[in-house]
TrEMBL record:
InterPro entries: ADH-like_C, ADH-like_N, ADH_Zn_CS, ER, GroES-like_sf, NAD(P)-bd_dom_sf. Its cofactor is Zn(2+). One of its GO terms (cellular component) is cytoplasm. This is alcohol dehydrogenase. Belongs to the zinc-containing alcohol dehydrogenase family. PROSITE patterns: ADH_ZINC. Residues 9-351 form the Enoyl reductase (ER) domain. Pfam families: ADH_N, ADH_zinc_N. It comes from the Bacteria. Keywords: Metal-binding, Oxidoreductase, Zinc. PANTHER family: ALCOHOL DEHYDROGENASE 1-RELATED (PTHR42940), VACUOLAR PROTEIN SORTING-ASSOCIATED PROTEIN 11 (PTHR42940:SF8).
Length: 353
């Protein structure tokens, strides 16, 4: 007799996820069954829960077609391998793993060059396939199960999205010189990961801007050289003066029109800005200013499976500061989504089914 699996299903966008008990099916050929021991809750889960991204122009980007209900959300997953489908190789029962969730079709040019995160026919866990707000998850192939080593699983799980997203964004700025300056916008879960990784990836302790001063101590603890309020005009002037006309690089982990504009204006000539956040909004960009400042603007969407392997190998050396996480039971998932929606959850929430 198959065991029962408890999960929380999104049945209708914007409504509380439904506590559900179902028999665990048999794994299909090539699949790996992972018993989930830690599942991070990401801000993108909030948008998927809502079913849209607000562009700030009176238009909303519909996400409901890509995340058709009923669906188990959650894409930051770590746990223990419990079953292997026929032909599954590369892992064994009992292995502790972090699951790469950004799975593509496996056939297109992106997928065959380790860029599945850009696939136009995705099979992402927690979006097109059931994800981590559950006791078990079915992983389509063992290659997406990456050894967690000796990392605590509540620390390891967020590497699959917040950690990977920050790491991939920072890599787009490398290499940099130690005398250059990096500004990180946002000290939420992903932003704090960026602060934690900046010294290792770029050799620079970043400046962090966040309107919520309650997050500043966490940013400093993670490695920020200084913190500032982007709404403080005096702080903006002081930053421009201290950096001799602007920072060399910006990573926007917020993604509002205001944060994008602040980061763009903070850039010095020849600087580079990586846009990551998805909170929503818009701002005008004057093409002539882009030309005269000779700046580069680049988007960054999570990261590759290879980059997650790199990141976990780095993490296992112990050089990265720990992420401030708060563990909560699986049945608190709706409460956590509500708190993230309100913007009052510092650090990273990790569910322990």
């Amino acid at each position: 007799m198959r065991p029962m699996c408890r999960c929380f299903k999104l049945v209708q966008h914007g409504q509380p996820m439904v506590d559900t008990q179902e028999p665990l099916r048999e794994p299909a050929a090539g699949e790996v069954v992972v018993r989930i021991l830690a599942a991070g809750v990401c801000h993108s889960d909030v948008m998927l829960y809502d079913g849209f991204v607000d562009t700030g122009t009176g238009r909303k980007i519909d996400l409901s077609r890509g995340v058709a209900a009923p669906r188990v959300l959650g894409h930051e997953i770590a746990g223990e391998v419990t079953e292997l489908g026929a032909g599954a190789t590369g892992v064994k029962v009992g292995d502790k793993v972090v699951v790469y969730p950004w799975i593509g079709c496996g056939k297109c040019a992106y997928c065959t060059s380790d860029r599945e995160n850009l696939c136009s026919a995705p099979r992402n866990l927690g979006l097109q396939l059931d994800g981590g707000f559950s006791q078990y998850v079915f992983v389509p192939d063992a290659k997406y199960c990456i050894p967690a080593g000796k990392l605590p699983l509540e620390q390891a799980a967020p590497y699959a999205c917040s950690g990977l997203t920050a790491y991939a964004a920072l890599k787009k700025l490398a290499p940099m010189r130690p005398d250059q300056t990096v500004l990180i916008l946002g000290a939420g879960g992903v932003g704090l990961s960026g602060v934690r990784f900046a010294k290792h990836v770029l050799g620079i302790s970043p400046i962090v801007a966040d309107i919520d001063q309650a997050k500043w101590p966490l940013a400093v603890e993670a490695g920020a050289s200084q913190t500032l309020d982007p709404n403080d005009a005096d702080a903006a002037k002081a930053l421009a003066k201290a950096t001799g006309g602007g920072v060399d690089a910006v990573v926007d982990f917020v993604g509002t029109g205001e944060s994008f504009a602040y980061g763009f204006n903070a850039l010095r000539k020849g600087g580079k800005m990586v846009s990551v956040g998805l909170i929503g909004g818009s701002t005008p960009v004057v093409p002539a200013v882009v030309v005269f400042k000779a700046v580069t603007i680049q988007g960054s969407m999570v990261g590759t499976c290879g980059e997650l392997r790199e990141l976990l190998e780095i993490a296992q050396t112990g050089v990265l500061p720990p992420l401030p996480v708060k563990t909560l039971p699986l049945d608190s998932v709706n409460e956590v989504i509500g708190r993230l929606h309100a913007g009052n959850f510092p650090g990273r929430a990790v569910l322990t089914p």
